[in-house]
Amino acid sequence: MSDVRADVCIAGGGPAGVMLGLLLARAGIDVLVLEKHDDFFRDFRGDTVHPSTLNLIDALGLRARFDAIAHAPLRRLDAVINGIRLHLVDFTSLPPPNRFVTLMPQWDLLDLLAEAGAEHPSFHLRMGAEVTGLVERGGRVRGVRARTADGELTVQARLVVAADGRSSTVRRALGLVPRERPVDSDVMWFRVPRPQRPVPDTLAWAGPGGVAITIPRPDYLQCALLVPKESDEALHAQGIDAFRAQVVRVVPRLGEVIDAVASYDDVKLLSVQIDRLPRWWRPGVLLIGDAAHAMSPMFGVGINYAVQDAVAAARVLVPALAAQASDAVDRACAAVQRRRDRPTAMMQAIQYRAHRFIASGRIGRIISHPPTRPQRVVLRLVLPLLTPLLARLVGYGFRPERLE
Q1: Cα 337 from chain centre
Q2: Which residue range or ranges hold the FAD-binding domain (predicted)?
């Protein structure tokens, strides 16, 4: 067993953990990020980078490096409902320069942030280090224990930050239980080649056959089919042909490429959760990102909200850690929750209502094919007024954070 020390130990090398590590290291805070996997390559993770996150990339001076990585910018987000294409979100209505979302594999974004962090001597990232428990003394968390290929590791730290996701080991060790909003659907992720006949960039497809997502990546489409919660066993029993047929009913344009999904080995189930901790901190420990609040994949805002947590945390933790007082650090942790809890709750409420609406089956009846006269009036007069509001909601979220 070996021991190391750090001012801050971050459990989890996802967007929240690596971004916070980078920001703290820029301020001279000695920080150690522990990531249980040996690399960042995880398929079927969120890959939407929103305008607010792009603004942070600019502020960090990383834009040239970001643009050198293959990604797919989208200035507008369409949905096809009952065969009718709707231009729902128009990011060109946002202030320049970042008037679009872009789709970049999460591992590329994490590699970029980790490389930027490594340029600071106080940033340390250890891959293949899985946090297994906490070090506690005197009613306060003093560090973590981790499992590595070289044996057990103990990290002594003034502050532990849990950014280890929705199944957080740190949260479980603390005995914290989030309050959950029940969701009636899960997501089955898969990928297919781009059809030879180009498909316009479309995020959502909905109709009587169900709801699907098609995320354009440079060389293929990352897709998802929404299914009733805990229905995966029944779907498996029907066979892969039935799954492919259901996908094509929702997205007919995928008919020529759906055979690329050869078996259920090519499909990954994501159990959708919406939950939030009543309290995000305890003496010596702070929880952020999915460890504090699991977001639905609805609108792809999970990365954005995790990154916003990290920025808010860095802003108050840097002066608190410099104060060399435990109570100052605890007050800073409480301030992070006060800053981020309400905007998170507001977005989760919208996600929850959207899921309920989809589960009700009414989404396929929003618009007729062809549209009725009143529907055409709404499409012509009301929808153009909504698209800028939706752009701000999706692109920035509630209370976007900025670097100081």
Answers
A1: 18
A2: 6-348
Longest Cα pair distance anywhere in the chain, in angstroms?
A: 73
Q: Are 351 and 295 in contact (CB under 8 A)?
A: yes
Please report how the helices 15-26 and 302-322 are oriented relative to each other, as an axis angle in degrees rounded to 10. 30
- State mean pLDDT over 143-154: 94
Per CATH, the architecture of 2-70+104-180+273-359 is what?
3-Layer(bba) Sandwich (3.50)
What is the rounded average pLDDT of the residues 381-396?
91
CA angle 203–108–272, rounded 5-degree value: 45
- CA torsion 54→17→342→105, rounded to 10°? 40
Element (H, E) at 10: strand 2-11
- Residues β-bridged to residue 135: 143
359 compared with 60, residue with greater pLDDT: 60
Compute the average pLDDT of residues 277-290.
Answer: 97
Helices (H) and strands (E) in the chain, counts: 11, 20
Using the 8-state DSSP alphabet, how is residue 96 labeled? S
Are 14 and 126 spatial neighbours (Cβ–Cβ below 8 Å)? no
Tally of CB atoms within 10 A around 183: 21
Q: Which residue, 98, 119, 120, is CA-closest to 50? A: 98
Please tell me the distance from the alpha carbon of residue 187 to that of residue 307, in angstroms, as a whole number.
Answer: 23
Q: How far is CA 330 from CA 18, 282, 297, in A?
A: 21, 8, 31
Torsion of Cα atoms, 216 then 272 then 238 then 360, to 10° = -90
Give the residue from 182, 180, 270, 181 showing the smallest Cα distance to 227. Answer: 270
Average pLDDT rounded to a whole number, residues 81-95: 89
CA 241 to chain centre: 31
Residues across the chain? 404
What does R_g of the chain's alpha carbons equal in angstroms? 22
